[in-house]
Amino acid sequence: MLIRSATTLRNDYDRLVTLSKEKNEPVFITRNGDGEMVFLPIALWEKREAELDLLAELLRREQNRIAGAKTFSNEEMDALTEELLRED
Predict the structure, then answer these.
(1) Could you tell me the domains of the chain?
(2) pLDDT for 3-61, tens place per residue?
(3) What is the pTM of this model?
(4) How many CB atoms within 10 Å of residue 20?
């Protein structure tokens, strides 16, 4: 984990960008010793957002399954796929 002061961000932004990209880690920015912000490369942020979206979708599907939504076995999905392909 990388921790830097807000002053470092203000005075040496380019170095923080380089450091964060090289380490592929977020940099925690502090002010008066308190964690205030997180600075990270956009690629890392996008990856984390995609992971959160996937986890939210998995949770939604599991909640639907528990609530009684119809589920399909692999064999049922194969049969449905074959049927749909034959219709075209």
Answers:
(1) 2-40 (3.40.1620), 44-87 (no CATH)
(2) 999 999 899 999 999 999 999 999 999 988 777 899 899 999 999 999 999 999 999 99
(3) 0.67
(4) 19
